[in-house]
Design a protein that fits this description.
There is one protein chain. By secondary structure, the protein is mainly alpha-helical. The protein folds into two domains: 44 residues, Arc Repressor Mutant, subunit A (Orthogonal Bundle), CATH 1.10.10; 143 residues, Tetracycline Repressor, domain 2, CATH 1.10.357. The protein has nine helices and no strands. Helix 2 crosses helix 3, helix 3 crosses helix 4 and helix 5 crosses helix 6.
C-alpha cells in the first residue's frame, strides 16, 4: 500500500504546517488522505509510528537533495558549495529538516523516539524499519558518506580524504550560517573555507 502510505505522510505533513503536532489527530490525517483510520494504524501502528516515518522521510528527502548537489557536472568545490546551499535551503523551508540537522525540536514538531524493539509491538514487520530520527551527527555522517562516493573517484587516498573533510566543513558552515547568519554570504563563506582548506 505504498500510495496510501505516501498520502498519509503528505496529509500528516500538511496538518503539521497548520497546527502543533500535539493537536494533529489521527482521524483527521486519515480523512485528509482518503483512507480509514484503521488503515493509518495498520500502516504506522500509532501516532508515534507516524511521526517516525514522517521524520525519516524528511531525512531521506534531504539526503536525496545532497546526492543531486554532489552529482552535478561542476567542479568539486562548486558541488560542495551546492551541498551547503541545499542544506540551508532545505532547513529554512522544511522545519523537520532543520530540527534533524540542528537537534532543536520545537514544541510544535514531533520528536519521535526510537522504534519499539521487535516482538513488543503490533506494528507490521515491514514498518518496524521506521526507526527514530537520526541525530545531527548521524545525518552529517550520511552526507560525508555520500561525498566520499561522489567526490573521490580518481583521487589518491589522501586527496580523497581531504575532499570528504572539506565537504563536511562546508555543511557545518552551512549549519552555522543557518543558526547565526552574518554579513558574509554563504557562498563566499564556504568557497573561502574550501579553497583555504585545499
Amino acid at each position: 500500500m505504498p500510495a496510501a502510505r505516501e498520502s498519509l505522510l503528505d496529509s500528516a505533513l500538511t496538518a503539521l504546517t497548520e497546527r502543533d503536532w500535539s493537536a494533529v489527530r489521527m482521524v483527521d490525517v486519515a480523512s485528509a488522505a482518503g483512507v480509514s483510520r484503521q488503515t493509518l494504524y495498520n500502516e504506522f501502528g500509532s501516532k508515534e509510528g507516524l511521526a517516525r516515518a514522517l521524520v525519516r522521510r524528511e531525512a531521506d528527502r534531504y539526503l536525496r537533495g545532497v546526492e543531486r548537489a554532489l552529482a552535478g557536472p561542476a567542479t568539486e568545490r562548486e558541488r560542495m558549495v551546492a551541498v551547503a546551499e541545499w542544506t540551508v535551503a532545505a532547513a529554512r523551508s522544511r522545519p523537520l529538516v532543520r530540527a534533524l540537522l540542528t537537534g532543536c525540536w520545537a514544541g510544535r514538531l514531533p520528536a519521535p523516539g526510537p522504534a519499539p524493539r521487535p516482538g513488543r509491538s503490533y506494528v507490521p514487520a515491514q514498518r518496524r524499519a521506521d526507526t527514530g530520527p537520526p541525530a545531527p551527527g548521524e545525518l552529517i555522517a550520511a552526507v560525508r558518506h555520500r561525498a566520499a562516493l561522489s567526490l573521490t573517484a580518481g583521487h589518491v587516498e589522501e586527496e580523497a580524504a581531504d575532499l570528504v573533510y572539506r565537504c563536511e566543513v562546508a555543511v557545518r558552515l552551512a549549519l552555522s550560517h543557518l543558526l547565526a547568519p552574518g554579513d558574509l554570504t554563504l557562498d563566499r563563506l564556504v568557497r573561502d573555507a574550501v579553497v583555504r582548506a585545499a
